[in-house]
Specification:
By secondary structure, the protein is mostly helical. The protein has 14 helices and 2 strands. The chain is about 60% helix and about 0% strand.
Length: about 240
């Protein structure tokens, strides 16, 4: 059965009962049960599909239409992840998909009042990072893809900032510099640092200053030191 035939059947049934031409209530109950079951399957289908946006590439307008019509698809889980988290980890990440999912997620209170549309929801396949921290730290497996990922996430951050979903105080409260102090996430790191270079000092990770938490990671440690001297040369960078 195709969609037009299904719609035709629904219109026929609706008309039949609306005009009281068919009065069998048992029949009506079974039809309603079938429609409810069908509706759940439709939600499931769209829910799964929301985790594969990078594969079937719907238009951005279509994504907005679906999440507005079926808000529950924003919280449909696939291996513990919600759609915005799958979009962030996709092979072909897209700024627009992530932005739409975050924006609509806020409207639907995905993850709760304080979860900012799922941005502050824990990413189940990370070490306790939330979605925003995951987007800071994520590095493509393929070396050739890493710069593209960095550029795309940078664009996402700029858009989230523009629509008020990325805040300046996130940089230290969410320890974002710690998560992106890496050569492969350099564009994200410098963007956040330019926004608030004082976060080099104010960021605490498990109670320790940022530079202390990076000392076991030679490249990241050197990167933080170099950046510290660039922004705070007069006080010896981060050597305090």
């Amino acid at each position: 059965m195709n969609i037009s035939t299904f719609q035709s059947n629904l219109d026929f049934i609706k008309s039949l009962y609306f005009h009281e031409e068919w009065k069998d209530e048992k029949c009506k109950e079974k039809i309603v049960e079938a429609i409810e079951e069908c509706n759940q399957k439709i939600l499931d289908a769209f829910g799964w599909s929301m985790h594969k946006l990078d594969k079937h590439k719907p238009s951005f307008e279509a994504v907005e239409k679906v999440v507005k019509k079926f808000p529950s698809t924003l919280t449909y889980e696939n291996h513990g992840r919600i759609p915005i988290q799958s979009a962030a980890a996709a092979r072909n990440i897209t700024k627009e998909y992530l932005t739409i999912l975050a924006k609509e997620g806020v409207r639907q209170k995905v993850g709760g009042e304080e979860a900012r549309g799922g941005l502050l929801t824990i990413e189940p396949k990370s070490d306790g990072y939330n979605t925003l921290q995951f987007m800071c730290s994520f590095v493509a497996k393929e070396v050739d893809d890493r710069e593209r990922y960095d550029i795309t996430f940078l664009q996402v951050f700029k858009e989230l900032r523009k629509i008020g979903l990325l805040h300046k105080n996130d940089i230290y409260e969410q320890q974002l510099l710690y998560f992106c102090c890496n050569n492969d996430t350099w564009k994200r790191f410098t963007y956040l640092l330019d926004w608030d270079h004082t976060a080099l000092f104010t960021t605490r990770v498990e109670g320790d200053p940022l530079i202390h938490k990076l000392r076991d990671f030679r490249e990241d440690f050197c990167l933080a030191l170099e950046t510290g001297f660039r922004y705070h040369q007069s006080i010896g960078g981060l050597l305090y």
